[in-house]
Amino acid sequence: MSCSLLVALGASPAGAAWHKASTAHFVIYADETPAKLSAFATKLEKFDKAVRQVRGMADPKVGDGNRLTVFVVPDVKAVQKLAVTMTGVTTNLAGFYSGRAEGSIAVVPKRASDYDPDDQSTFFHEYAHHLMYFDLSEPVPLWYSEGFAEFMSTATFGKDGSVMLGRAALGRAGSVDDKRTFPLEKMLAANYDRLSEPEWDSLYARSWLLTHYLTFEPTRKGQIQRYLKDIATGKNSLAAAQGAFGDFAILDRNLHGYIARSKMAALKVAGAALPVGPVAVEPLSPGAAEMMPHRMRLKVGVAKTDKPALAEAIRAVAARHPADPLAQVTLAEAEFDAAHYAAAEAAADRALAAAPGSVEAMIFKGRAILEQAAQDEKGKSFADARAWFSKANKIDSEDPEPLMLFHSAYVRDSGRPSANAVAALHYASDLAPQDIGLRMQSAYQYLRDGNLPEARKALVPVAFDPHGRGAAKSAQAAIARIDAGDAKGAQTAMER
C-alpha cells in the first residue's frame, strides 16, 4: 500500500464525531450524529425482522462476537478505497459484505447515490444472502439465491414503521427482459461457467424477474416450492424446472407480459409486526475515534505485503493511547497479522488491563500464544492458548471464533482433536454458516466420523453459495457422493 493511500484512508476529518450503535443483530460504527445513527440502526433491524417474518425464520439470540459489524463511510469513493485494499477491484462497487467466523463485516456509504441518499440496495442484497445461509438446509440454485437477494434488496421503509419488500429492481431494467443474452433454459440449467459480464448482468436481472413472478403470480402458486423440493430429492435444476414450471417458451412469454405491467406487486410488512429493541448509541473514545479508519482497513483486509506498513501506522496511534482498549486490541490484531506475535500478546495484555472482559483481546492473546507455541517459544504452550479461548467462550458462548480456535489449537498440537474440540468445531460452523472454510472443516470432520447426513447438511450452504467458486464445486461433488452412499468418495472430493 502506498503512503498516499495510507494517508487518504487513515485521515479523520477535523471534529470527527465517531459513534457506535449496538442492536440485537448489528454493531455499527459511523462518524455521524447519535440521532441519525440510531435511525439507521433501526432501519437495519427492521429489515432483518421483515425478511425473517416473510421467510418464517427463527430469530435466535446472537452473541456479541457474532453480530454483523457495519462500517459507515462518507460515500461510494470511500467504499472503493477500502475495497481496493482487499480485492483490487472497485468498478461499480457501492458497498460490500464479508461473512466469516472471525466476525462478519459490511461497509456501506452514508450516501450511496446522488439520486437516492437512502439507497442501501447493495447492503440489503448481501445481508439477504447472510440470512438465507443461516436458514439453508436444502440445495438452492444460484439463480434463485441471487433472485431472492435482488427481491429483498429493494426494501423501502414507510413513515408508519412498515417495510415494503419486493419493489421493482429498476437498476436491472436494461437486462430484465434480455432473452437473447441469457435464455431461460440456460439460466435454469444452473451451469454458469465462463459467463461474460453481460450474461452475469442478465442472470441477476432475470433471476429477480422470475423470483418476483413466481412469488406473486396466482397461477404459479406453489411452483417454486415444488421446484426446490425436486432439487432436494436429487433432480438436476433443468429437469426440476421443467416439471414445476412447464413449457419454457410459455414461461418466457408470461415473463415478458409480467414486466410490461404498469404496476407490480410488493409485500408490505406492518410496522406493528416489526418491534425493534433498544438501540444503544455511545461516542467513541478519542483513541478509538483516531484508530477507526485504520481498524476498518484492518478488518477489511490488506495484501500481505501491506501488512507491515499498516501495523506501523496502527502502532503510532496506539502509542498515543496506551490505555485505550479498542486502540490496543486493534494493535494486537495488526501485530498478529504482521507475524509479530510477542508484540501482539503485549498489546492484548494492555487491552485486557483496560477492559478485563474483552473477548477480542482474549482471542488475540490466545492466538499469539498459539503461534509462539508452534514456534517452540519457551514458556508458550498449546494448552495455554486453549485456556484463553475457553475464557473467551465462557463470556460469549455464541461467538464462533473462540470455538473454532479451540479446535484448531488441538489439531496443531497433536493432530487429534478431543471430542469436546470436535463439538466446538461443529457448533462454531452452525453459528457461522456464512464462513465457507469453517463449514468445509465441519463437513469433513463429519465425513471422517461416518456421519453422512450431518456432513451433507453442513455442505449445503457451501455448495450453493453464489460466491463459493472452487469450494462450491467441491461441496457439490461431495454431496453427490454422499447421496450415493460413498463416504470415502465424498472425502476425496473435498480433498481435491
Describe the protein's architecture and organization.
There is one protein chain. The protein has 496 residues and is an alpha+beta fold. Among the domains are: 98 residues, no CATH class; 193 residues, Tetratricopeptide repeat domain (Serine Threonine Protein Phosphatase 5, Tetratricopeptide repeat, Alpha Horseshoe), CATH 1.25.40.10. The protein has a 6-stranded mixed beta sheet, with helices on both faces. It has a 3-stranded antiparallel beta sheet with strand order 6-7-8. Strand 4 and strand 5 form a beta hairpin. Helix 11 runs parallel beside helix 13, helix 15 runs antiparallel to helix 16 and helix 19 runs antiparallel to helix 22. The protein is globular and about 70 Å long. The N terminus is likely disordered.
Features:
disordered N terminus; 9 strands; 22 helices; three-stranded antiparallel β-sheet; Serine Threonine Protein Phosphatase 5, Tetratricopeptide repeat; 496 residues; alpha+beta; six-stranded mixed β-sheet; globular; 8% strand
The CATH superfamily of the domain at 303-495 appears as Tetratricopeptide repeat domain
Distance between the termini: 34 Å
Overall SS class? alpha+beta
In terms of DSSP E residues, the strand content is 5-15%
Oligomer: single chain
Q: What's the CATH architecture name of the domain at 303-495?
A: Alpha Horseshoe
The CATH class assignment of the domain at 303-495 is Mainly Alpha
Radius of gyration: 24 Å
Q: DSSP helix count?
A: 22
Considering DSSP H and I runs of 4 or more, what fraction of the residues is helical?
A: 55-70%
CATH-derived topology of the domain at 303-495: Serine Threonine Protein Phosphatase 5, Tetratricopeptide repeat
Largest sheet descriptor: 6 strands, mixed
Beta strand count: 9
Poorly predicted segments: 1-16
Mean pLDDT: 88
How does the overall form come out from the CA principal axes? globular
Order of strands, main sheet, comes to 4-5-3-2-1-9
